[in-house]
Structures are given as structure tokens and as C-alpha cells.
What does this fold into?
Amino acid sequence: MEALWDPYIIRRKINSLARRLNWSWAPARPVWGWLVPTSRCNLACKTCPAHAPVHGTDPNYWTDMKPEVYARFREDVLPSLRIVHISGDGEPFFAPKFEEMLGDILDGRREVTIVTNGTIIRRRAIERAVKNPVTFRVSMDGSTNETNFANRGVKLDRVLEFLETVKTIAAGGAHPRFLVQISYVVLRSNLHQMTEAVELAHRYGVKEMCFGNFVTDDRTDDYARRESLFGCPEEVMPYWQRARDRGLELGVHVYPMSFDCKDRPDEERRKHKPDLYDGERIRQCPHPWWSVYVEADGRVKPCCVYHWFMGNILEQPLRKIWNGPKWRGLRRIVNTPRMPDVCRSCFIQTRI
It folds into this structure.
């Protein structure tokens, strides 16, 4: 049972009340945060919205979080956070200061999720993580070396070595809420491997499987046109159902998927976007009242999906950005039919 006097619970409930009252002002500080320790990555996955070769981004654009940005995050943002996701455009284990950041964030109570491609093994960081309420969300886009290499540029064996290392360390004693998930982007080339991926998850002690769609945004290249099934629920769902059934047999929880149904009749939209529609009601997104996402350069926004930044913690204290005009403007529309298009295709699935 949640302790009602817990400051985190109090802040969350105050801002949840503000959301239910349709306030654009959030009285309490954020309780959920994303930290991007680096925007650099050791891979160039073809589905990545940042590092896919098709983007042709200048490599000098990517950077590690500078000490002054992290110092401001640690002092001005971190103290109020109970949930922290270490993720972003880069690979967290690639960041030079990753272990220092992890040590600051882990306090025995914070729930931490580390999103990783599972190709860099830092045993000391893993050993510390398994003793805390940490979730490793490990990416793979195929159940064979060939398929994973075709989509992510790395053989699956590298990822399986990471999973085996985590499993071995955790077997020596882990926090009751330590967890490993697999994140799998469903593509036309790996659709038929979804059930095998669930079986692999079970073999390596993974308890949760997150199948997601390849959201192409404005991409029109051959790979995006060929591989994305975001608008094809009829093609994907039979494979998802078989993977889910196998997960039930093995004790691996398979999360539901959502699809792009904006051009479909209302009845189909509610069926294939249960995270957005509940009968006739638009589910409520709490993130503009709960969350803050801090980029490697100090820019902040409400979550990992939203594209537009609200300010920079190097230029203003968070309290001024948090209830500034941009953030309040989003709160006014995010739970209405006027919500931004990016919110309609959101994969976070935390609407309530």
C-alpha cells in the first residue's frame, strides 16, 4: 500500500488533481524523468529516429552530457524524481560518466529503467543495478543473427551475451523488483520470429516482452516503406496473438501493441488504439503534469515522444520552465481532440 505521507505520492496526487481539474498549471514538481547521458551510439539501427543511416546526420552533432548540464540535473531536477528512465538517442552504457550517474540516481527507492542495445557490458554497473529496483530494457529486432544484423547492424549473439551476463549476476542475489525486458520493433522481415523471440526471452530469464511498431514519421526511403507495419494491424495481430499465447505458457508477459489508425472509422480506432481510446472517452495522458525529459545538452521537454523543447536547464531553473507558456500550452490540448499528432501515435501507453 502506498504511504500517503510519502512526498513523491503527495506531489504525484497534487498534479494528478490539477490534470483532472483541467489546470494548465502544475503545482508540484515532476516525479518522473528521462535522462540522456549521451546522444552518441555505437550502432546505427535502421529503425532509429536519430542514428539510422538514412538521416545522414553529422557525427559531430552527437555529444556526451557535459558536466555542467549533469550538475544542474543532479541539483535541480533529480531530487523530486521517483522514476528515472536512462535512455534517449544514444546508448547509455557508451557514456563516459554512466557509472557515476547511475550511482547518483540509485538510492534504493527510485525506480530506474535503463534502455540499452545490449552490446556493451560494464559488469560493475550491472552488479550495482541488480541490487536496486532497476529494469533493463534490451533491444533486439529479430530472433536470429541474420535478421538482427540486417535491422540493427549487430549479430544477436552480442545481445544474448549481455542477457546471459545479467542473468548470471542476478542469480547471485537481486532486488525483488529488478527486471529485464526485451524491446522488439516489429518489421515485415521479423514478423514471423515474434514467437521465437518470446522463447528466447524465457531462456534468458526475461519476464516481459514489449513488441512495438516502426513509426516512420516523415521517412519515405525504401526500408521504411518496406518494413513498417504501423498501419497494418490485420497483418501483425495474428503473429502477436501467437507470441502472447506462448508467453502465457512460459510466464513471459507480452504487452499489447498499438497502431496508426487515424484514417480508420471510429470503431476501428478504438479497437486498435486501446491505449488512446476507452469507449467514447480519450484516455488521459499524465506526462505533462508528471514528467520531464532532459537532453544531453540541457534542453527539456515533457517525455521521450514529444518533439518540441520547452527550455534549457542551463538557461533557466526548472521551476520556470515547468510552468512556462510552452508547457502550459501543451497541458491545455494534450487530452483533447486537438492533441498533437505525435501524441496520437504515442507508444508509451501510460494514458489513464
